[in-house]
Amino acid sequence: MVMKKIESPLDRYGLETEGSLNYMKEAKKHLPGGVAANIKHFAPYPIVMKEGRGAWLKDVDNHWYVDYLMGYGALALGHAHAKIRHAIADQIFCDGTCLFGTPHQLEVEFAKAIKRYYPSIQKLRYTNSGTEATQLAIRLAQVFTGKRKVAKCEGHYHGGYKEMLYSINPSLDEAGEIEIPLPVPESADVKVDGNEPYILPFNHIEGIEHLITTHHSDLAAVIIEPIQAGYIMADQTYIDRLRQLTLTYGIVLIFDEVKTGFRSALGGAQEKYGIEPDLTTLGKVIGGGFPIGLVGGKKDILDVSSPSRGADVFEAGEKGQGSAKDILFHSGTYNGHPTILAAGLATINEMEQAYAKVLDITTSLREGIETLAKSVGLPVTTYGAGSIFNVIWKKDCKLKHYRDLQKTNTKMRKELDFALLQAGVYTKPLNRYSISAAHGKEELDFTLKAYEKAFHQLKGGARFS
């Protein structure tokens, strides 16, 4: 008897995305791997988009998708929102330029808007990305405390620079014991050589107590995603204890809220937990789809970068200016870019009005997915906070940290993602969902119909345990 091969969603992928395949073949001649950033790649090849409108994307094969990637969460209002377009045009028309290269009024106006929602931020500095923001936050903490070592949590991502590319998603056989994780390199240029960060266990109180009390004398900062990847919540008791320990030992606590700012709540995860970190990093949403980041926090820490304290590297040697070594040098041609701040202000102002609706859509979508999965007997649930969530394939799933995530059925989750792509629902396979103000009832109904189709397709294949 010859068994008929069951067609999987991946089998049809190449038939329906021929334009993307051809583009990627050409792109590989010019770009490493055919992509401008590693995160844009997925096997067998990514879908190439050519248009975005509201909550929708169109690919080079002219297929439309409801977009749940939303620029990895950056597009809180959706694609090409009218308020953002008008804000950009008004800024350039009224100011007559898109770049001053000098202080300008939007720098303070935007800072005031941020501080309304983040009371922990007394002063702030602009950067060009979330990655730059976390890097600057660590430098500020090191100069302020006079110490060099940093601790990060296992499973957390803080940007693509080598100092933090450890233990983001290591295999469990390399990661060590859960209470004392090992530093595992996550890039070819990263080594375990004594300069690596200490690795903290997430949601494990005894583990952080041991590491911080042991190493506090050389520990400048603890940097953490208070909600891992935007959807795995820290326990309140864990966050509270972490705050107590860092205060006791004079360690700077950095909340990396690049993903969670204006998403887990308008005031970020620190609003949800009622915790004031020493430093906060923000990005993504606050740029309205344009590159931005910022570091904000206690004025005494931020002021170590104040140019009024001494010379900078371009003034060194000037009489009476002091030495460049007297301050932390931080600069960037595009920091506080007026066009981007205009887009960010428009985003924040609109989110103040739209956030409740975004939460309603997010809740309805999550409940709809879980109800459909239960109706067909599939072990699918959702995890998240605010307008971010992820879809998890595992029976009786309880996510506390990345190790739990590694035990889920990522093979079936990926098949689900490819089935959804063919039904017109887009996110990068295995990625989280970010809901925008552009998502409404039409997108909700469309998505749940796509899920219903995909669930029945996968249930019929019966390839999961």
Question: Describe it for me?
Answer:
The structure is a single chain. The chain has helices at 9-16, 18-27, 82-95, 105-117, 130-145, 205-215, 236-248, 268-273, 299-302, 338-376, 402-406, 410-422, 441-461; strands at residues 49-53, 56-59, 64-67, 123-127, 149-153, 176-177, 180-181, 198-200, 219-224, 227-228, 232-233, 252-256, 279-283, 293-297, 380-385, 388-393, 425-426, 433-434. The longest helix is centred in the last third of the chain and has 39 residues, at 338-376. The protein starts with 8 loop residues before the first helix and ends with a helix. The mean pLDDT is 94. The protein is globular. The strands form five sheets. The protein has a seven-stranded mixed beta sheet, with helices on both faces. The protein has a four-stranded mixed beta sheet with strand order 1-2-3-17. Strand 15 (380-385) and strand 16 (388-393) form a beta hairpin. By secondary structure, it is of the alpha/beta class. The protein contains 13 helices and 18 strands.
